Each structure stands twice: as C-alpha cells, then as structure tokens.
Amino acid sequence: MTAVRLGGGNLASRFQVGFTLLKLVLILAFIVAGLAGNGGGSVSFAPSASDPARIFSAGFVVSLVFVMYAYSGWNAATYIVGDLADPARSLPRALFVGTGLVSALYVMLTAVFLYTTPVAEVAGQVEVALISGRHVFGDAGGRIVGLLICVGLIPTIGAMMWIGPSVTVAMGEDVPLLRQLARRSATGVPVAAILLQAVVASLLLLTRSFEAVLEFIQFGLLSCAFLTVLGVIKLRITRPDLPRPFRAWGYPITPLIFLTVTLFMLVHLAVSRPLQSLAGAVLMLVGLGLYALTASNARREVTKVP
To answer: Tell me: the pLDDT tens digits for 139-176?
Structure first.
C-alpha cells in the first residue's frame, strides 16, 4: 500500500476505486448467500422487555467501542478536503453517502451473523465472520470469508495510507518542528509523511497483537471525537462571526447526543480498561506538550523579528 501511494497520480486512484468496488460486491454476495440459507442462529430479532437494561449495561457500552471502528472512517473525508476540487459540494455528499452505506452494510452483516450462527459459537470470539462463513458456505466457508476479509482490508488500508499522511502534512504545515513532514515530491506526494506512517504501523503490528493495538488507541480516538464536537459548540458561542460553509444538522441536539453517548463510553472504558485508557491519555498529553513547545518557539521567533 505504501508503494502504491508513493506512486501517486491515477494509479493510486484507480487502485483504490477498483478494490473498493470489489469489496462491496463481495460483502453483498456474502449477505445474499447468508440470508438465502435456512439459518441456524438462535437469536430473535423481535424486541424484548430486557433490551433497555442491556443497552445501559457496561458490557454493551464497551462493545460499542468496537462497533465504532466500523464507522471510524466516516469523518475521514474532512482530512483530505484540500485534495477535493469542490469541497462545499462533494464533502457533505461523501459524508452522508459513505456513512449511510456503511451503516446499511454493517447492520445487514450483523443480521447475517446472528441469522446463520448460534450465539454460543460466537460468544467471546473475535473471528465471528469466519465462524459464520462456515455456516453459510460449509466447511470451506472459513477460508472463503477469510479471503473476503483480506481483500476487504486492501482498500481500507489504501484509504488510511491516503488520509493518515494528509493529517501529518497538516501538522507539518502548522508546527515548524515537523516542517519536513509537509514536503511533497514533484508529483505532489507527501513522501516523508507516508513513510513515517508505514514505519509506525509496522512497529505497532510487529511488537503487539492487532487487538492490543486497537485497545491502546480506543480511549484516544473517542477523546478526540468528543473534543472535536465539543469544539463546535464552543466556537458557536465564542466565535459566532466565523464563516460556516457547512451546517450541523439538528444543532445543538445532535452534538449533545453525540457528546453524551461518547462520554458514557469513555467512562466505562476507563473503568474496564484503565491501563489502556491511561496509556492513550498519556499519548495525547505528549502531543499537547509537543504542540505547546512548538507554539512557544514560534512566538519567540515572531518577537525577534524587528
């Protein structure tokens, strides 16, 4: 993925679009195959009286953190707004269409898992899709679904190799200490930012398990989302004069709902996984310290100018 992204231009674009379409086709094929079968699940889709209690339980809240990963790319289009020709038109469309499509596919996939597989078989298991695949396609189903997952990860990684370096480039443009990360090649590719992300991702995956990496970044991701939405409300109050080309539908109700649910998840996450949450908080504090240091240096440089 790093090599493709370094190539830049039409190659990276065609690669991303092609594999994304292939991923969608494979997911839809799995959904159709699962729903077309007789079903072997033991879960009723009808609501029950015990559902409200489960929704407000600690286990359900912590599980929402993993559900958030299915939607974690919904806001990523905002990171590459500088690469969009008409962001005022294309950005809202990308957010709504992308989030709506992912939501529909996620719900249908979850329904297939529950429809085809007994809960006892998937309880406490990470590879739910592989287990469900054996019920849908027989003994070879695990390998088929494993292939589907591998192919599906290709466009996901490709998107992150585009979006992640864009954030790093913005940091390099704002923070003088990281200026090297903002440099681009003659073709406009941020080589240093891409290589940095590849090195960091490789070190994380080689030194710890994938699940451990997810647990490590959960608190930080949720905190950043919480603070970002809180910042929208703060700016509405303190800077009502700022131009706002994009509207927040349902404001202030929708931001307040998001903040309430996210805070609920953060509290339960800190209680159930204190070490991982503390590590994520420390990492954020290190970033804030770096930002404060560079901002202080920038102010000193300005005062030196006659």
So the answer is: 777 777 888 878 877 877 777 777 788 888 888 887 77
Task: Look up the pTM and report it.
Answer: 0.69
> Is 132:149 a contact under the CB 8 Å cutoff?
no
CB-based contacts of 293-299 (< 8 A; 24+ apart in sequence) = 293/177, 294/175, 294/176, 294/177, 294/178, 297/176, 297/177, 298/176
